[in-house]
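Quick one from the shared queue. A colleague (R.T.) flagged Trypsin-10 as missing a structural entry in our internal table.

Convert sequence to structure tokens.
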Amino acid sequence: MLGLGLSLQTLFRKHFCGGVLITSRHVLTAAHCVHDFIFFPWLLKVSVGSEKLGRGDIFDVDVIVVHPSYGKSSQYAADLAVIVLSSEVSDKTNKVCLPSLYLSATYPFPSNYVVAVGWGHTSDNVKYAVKNLRQVEVKILSTENCKGYGYLYSESIMICAGWEEGGKDTCQADSGGPLLWLNSEGNWEVHGIVSFGFGCANKGFPGVYTKVIEFNGWIRRLVLISRLML
């Protein structure tokens, strides 16, 4: 399942954020990763199809759409964006499913364990992306575990995930990457998008993820509209 991550890169092929493919042309990522590229989508490149950084197929970007409520109620509220690629990704094994429209938004899932993937830093002291895609298993935690974030954390639109004792987490340059859950049919669903945290894997400050299921309708409408227009 490592291959389900993809890399957002600058024009000079430098990795800075992650994302996940939800259709052959649509990438889900964090708004804070791409809001500066909205009017300059040609400056953004998307690398798909390889666990080794710099080895994937490079795709140009047609359109970037940031959720209209991004940053309105707090800095990371609605931290979600959809990227429309200029051409289709032919390898469907890179694609994940959105949550079912009929799935309850109540967390945790039947299994508390979910998986995040990315090329991000391996610790606070490491300031560069790793060369090989990595994955980490984390637990969906209660709001109590994220109370250290104060007003920045909102249970209704965010997921608190990590370990109570710290030690395992996503980190810088993992932003925009997916938090994945294996459903009963054996398909990977994206339920979270890496949003923010204080440091990496610190006790009392688990990772915070945008809760995809709360934006399911917006994502699906956007995909449909873009298919009709582009």
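Helices lie at 31-34, 216-229.
The radius of gyration is 16 Å.
Added to the table.
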